[in-house]
Each structure stands twice: as structure tokens, then as C-alpha cells.
Amino acid sequence: MKNDIRRSFEKIKAEEGLKQSTRESVLNKLNEKPKPRRNFQRLSLAVAAAAFLLFIGAGSFQIYFSESSYIDMDVNPSIELSVNRFDRVIRMSAYNKDGKEVLSELNLKHKSYKDAVALILKKIKEKGYLKQNGMISVTVQGKDREKASEIKTLQTEIDQCISEHGGRQNVEVYAVSKRLKKKSHHLNVTPAKYLAIKELQKVDQTATVEKCRDHSISEIKDYTKQCEEGHENSHGNSQDRQQGGHHGSGGHHGEH
């Protein structure tokens, strides 16, 4: 009997000892510091993930705000739209006072270039710049594939806007080279106006960019036509005088 009681107490003590050792083992595990290697691996993964997200974000930002093509409009307000590869307007600028006035009343950023052109034409119409039989000149500078698509879209959009407003304007939409765009931009005029001035200079050597800057393309082309007609008339009169002189001289010799 005594032996049984002793064994029972010993068993209880053994169980208490087991509990105590187990408790100490668990506490030691909880208080044990993580291994540096595992911490380093976790930190490396976190840094790599953050760097990847930053790279993706920065890359997307750079792609979105990179110009893919340029659309220049000239009515007399002269305006440039910088377009990204997603066909969104990311920058706008004006070449003259009229262009600045138009842009100051419009919010075109992040709109599709199609919508931007429609809004510009509407505002130009409201301000009275779209005159009957006037000229709307639009140029596109960019990659060949993009230019072809944009030119077709712009031509359709402009024709539609004009028909909606009951206007009658001469519209020209065409592509220009990067070199021409750079030259005109340096002189702070649209490519279309630059080309119109170059044509005028062929018949009027006194014409300069500064003199023509604030004139519409319609006015420049009309003046060019007048100069050409004036040269033709002058050339014709000169020939008539020469022919008349020859006839007189011949008659005089005949009399002798």
C-alpha cells in the first residue's frame, strides 16, 4: 500500500517535471531570436518587390509622358499638340497670342487628340476665327504608321466639325518631316505657316517670318497669289514693250 502511494507521488512529480521542462522549452523558443539568414532573405525579397514596382511605375510614367507625334493646327490661332503613343494629348503650346487665348479657355490634357482637335475647332469657331472660305492647315509629325492613321482621323474629324457648324473652309492635312518640324519650331511658327512663308519669299524677297508671323495662312497665300499675278502682268507688259520696240525699230529701218 505504501509502495503504491509512493509510486503515485513519484508519477505526479515526474509529470510536474515534464510540464516544467516543456514550459521552459516553449518559452525559450518564443524568446529565441530569428536567425539572421531568414531575416536577410525576407528583407531581400521585400526590397526586390519594391524595386520591381518602382521600376514598373517609373517605366509606365515615362512611356505615357513621352511624345510620339506632334499635331500643329493653324487657322490663325497657331497651336501645337504633343501626343503620346496612346493617342492622348500630354502637352499643348501656342505659337501666337490668338493661340494662347484659345488654349487658356480649354482643358485638353489627357484627352484623345481627336477630341482635342474638335474642342479647338469649336472654340475657334466661337471666337470668330473660322471665316468663310478660310484655310485650316493641320500637319502631323511622327512615325509613318502613326502619321497615316492620324492624318486620316484628323481629316474626318475636321470635316465633320466644319459640317456641323455649317462652315465652308479649305482644309489641308498632311505629314511633315522631323527636320521641317524642327526648323519651324525654332522659328516659333507652325510647319504649315513656315511652308507658306517660304512660298511667299519666292515672289517677295522682302517677306520674313517676323512680318508674316501674325498673319493667317489664308492671308499669306492670298498675298503670294497677288505677287505671282503681279509678276506675270509685269513680265507680260515687259514683253509687250520689247515687241513694240522691235516693231518700231523695224518700221524705222524700212523707211530708210
Structure described in brief:
Keywords: Membrane, Transmembrane, Transmembrane helix. With 256 residues, the protein is an alpha+beta fold.
Classify the secondary structure makeup into a structural class.
alpha+beta
Q: Order the strands across the largest sheet as they lie in space.
A: 3-2-1-4-5
**Rg measurement, Å:** 40 Å
Low-confidence stretches at least 5 residues in length (pLDDT < 50)? 246-256
Strand count, sense and closure of the main sheet?
5 strands, mixed
Average pLDDT? 77
Q: Report the strand count.
A: 5
CATH class identity of the domain at 69-178? Alpha Beta
First-to-last CA distance:
179 Å
- Helix-strand sequence: HHEEEHHEHEHHHH
Q: How much strand content do the residues show?
A: 5-15%
What percent of the residues sit in helical stretches (DSSP H or I)? 55-70%
Shape type: elongated
Organism: Anaerostipes caccae
Keywords: Membrane, Transmembrane, Transmembrane helix
Transmembrane segments: 43-65
Region (Disordered): 227-256
Description:
The protein is an alpha+beta fold. Among the domains are: 2-63; 69-178, Hypothetical Protein Tm841, Chain: A,domain 3. Helix content is 65%, strand content 12%. It is built from 9 helices and 5 strands, in the order H-H-E-E-E-H-H-E-H-E-H-H-H-H. The chain has helices at residues 2-31, 36-64, 97-104, 113-126, 144-164, 178-186, 191-203, 209-212, 217-255; strands at 69-74, 78-83, 89-94, 135-142, 170-175. A 5-stranded mixed beta sheet has the order 3-2-1-4-5, sandwiched between helices. The protein starts with a helix and ends with a helix. The model is unreliable at 246-256 (pLDDT under 50). The chain crosses the membrane at residues 43-65. Residues 227-256 are annotated as: Disordered. It comes from Anaerostipes caccae. InterPro entries: RsgI_M.
